[in-house]
Amino acid sequence: MTHITKGANTPVPAALLRVAVCRRDVPGTPPVDASALLLDAVGKVRGDADLVFYNQPAHPSGAVRHAGNAKGDGQLAEWLELDLPRVEPQVQRVLIAGSCDGGVFGEVPGLAVQALTGEGAVVAHYEVTDASSETAFVLGEFYRRNGEWKFRAVGQGYASGLAGLATDFGIAVAEEPAGPEPSDAVPPPPSGPVPLDTVPSKTTGPVPTPMPAAAVPAPPPGPAPMGAVPPVPQGGAPFPFGPGFAPVVQRGRGQGVVSVGGSVPPGPVLVEAWHQGEGYIYAYTLTKRNKDDKLVFNNTITDFHGRALVFQGDDRRLRLRVTGDNDWTVSLQPLSAVRHLEGTVQGIGPEVLAYTGTEADVDAEFAGDSDGDGSFVVWSVDAHNLQGSQDLIFNDVGRLRQTAPVPAGPLLLLVEADGPWQLTARPLPALDPGPATTFDPPAATVPPAPPAAVPAAPSAQPYPDAGDGAAKDATRAKGLLGRFGRAKDEHSGRGAKTVTLVNPEPGKPAILEYSIKDENGYGGYRVERLDEYDDADKFMESSTHGVEGRTLVFGSGESEVRLRLERVGAWSLRLLPVEAATPLTGKTEGKGSTVFRHTGPPAVQTLRRLTRDEDPLETSVVQADGRKSMSASTAGRRRPVVGPLSVSAAGYCYLLVTARHTTGWQIEPASLDTVPAFTDKVSGQGYAVVRHTGPAAEMMVRYEVRGLLDLIALWELDERLEPIRRISMATGLQHIPQGLVQVRTSGGGKWTIEARG
To answer: What gap in Å lies between CA 600 and CA 585, rounded to an integer?
Structure first.
């Protein structure tokens, strides 16, 4: 660790740095707020936008961001992100300052500033030891010297607070109106941006997504776990698409309207929002008639912090209706402030990322919401046509690890998530064209394979005939079983162990046939999937998968997976070719977990429980590229439910049945003609698929709640029955589109969707 004293300096790497203004966590001491000022060659700001603090959390260049606060290990910290390669050439110094609300810095124990690299290495640490009556402090500064960056410990105090500090560096600060407000008064949210000529108090402000507590004072090396997300390098130059403008910030509580005047030109706008504490926040853009238009945010993440893309039109100013249970802040920023996907990026909730590299594979990890469920959707859109069509990259519910291809940039990735996630871009290597000659090997060097082992080429039709497809599957499975029957594809033992499964056909999924006994009959077994850092995600457990059955592995075509078995007695695992999945050609009955293959056009499936238990029984659809989505769940009840059998352009999908080995079920596929159609009203109970034949309209959604955590979710389905957008996770008035809609309920209660009247 590089400790320096007042007035000293030290070199720092020209990279993204995390800067913490920290202090000891002692009850009763005044809070400290961190800020940054970007100064030019004469030591002044160029405008109000060069001050970054809690109420103006991002610089237009994207080089400096206010990243929230953290608490842990007896420390409190306010975090800033400083991306030195993105600092504009006109900016020569970046000051790191703190202001003290409700006290003086002499009362703040352990006041310090610390700078860390993205990997967690501390590059500078300065502790203030001489504070007394100051209410603002310039703790340190990052400055350019001979093409390099250095950090200097400044330690200059101000008795006039942040306002006095800002005045010294060129920000005009107006005097606040005289006369205190009543102690119980709640100021209404401003109707426009919060001006920087008055510096508001942060007492009632929202708290952005917290940093991991272990990062103060020294975060652990290497990637952080999914549940604790550190700041992520922005990377690259400012995104050159869309107009530039000064950020517009507005704060409020409950319901409010954010209205943009002439300061924001037509084009794309980055909306960043914070919501303090637990509760609900949602936001809509408004039409010319002041009616809800497009959903921007709809989330219940604690201490919510998210970003979304909206557009300022030529014919009307941008207006947002924001509703939150607690304090919220909305910041409208130019697209130049967008985060860049370079290497690995982590986040919690919705996000907008810029990708400017070559063609790549993107690895996605989603930790799910607090219950391990929640949705994760990622769209891509061409940066040259941001209002054009969007391509669906990921779309799933619950914890996942998947990989999907993306084209060369520039493009935006629009993330919609109900919990922590991570994206890693792996650019494809450039191909060496080599000499302009060709080589045809002798025919004898490539002997023909036996007919039984090599299937016929797949049909070019999008949905080949189901019977013919089933015959091909059976032929191919017969030819492949020999290769999957080798000893390395079978594992057995007794007691806890970590097993590495090697994919005999990388690029394709496989079936895992398992038999696992509980260790002592209490608590049940648990199987976790481990990543390269030994971080674990739930894969199977006794209460949902039973002691024997089948499931899918290598869903994204991985070459190998590691499974950790815990609380187990005798167990055995065997890999089978995915072609061994049972064809789903009609009504089928069985028990426990298994895997079906549906070949043909999109359809629906009715799921019925045949036994009198109340154990979990659900189905999920897995596409050829590994994308997984929830289809149906009985919520422990015997009432039949209906779910989609979505089929991608590959012409088939896999249907996973998840149930204990004692749970009996019946699955019956049916055509889309059986889907109930409605114009004004439809009702049902539990999971269902319905078709809204009328025009898109505001409709009332009612649901019979069966428990504290019982929810209803509506999803819009495309023509392949794949979920493309979550419409709502709440009752009340909702915008129902024309077309297919999936109803999901966690408690299996009754629901109604009907037109207002």
So the answer is: 10
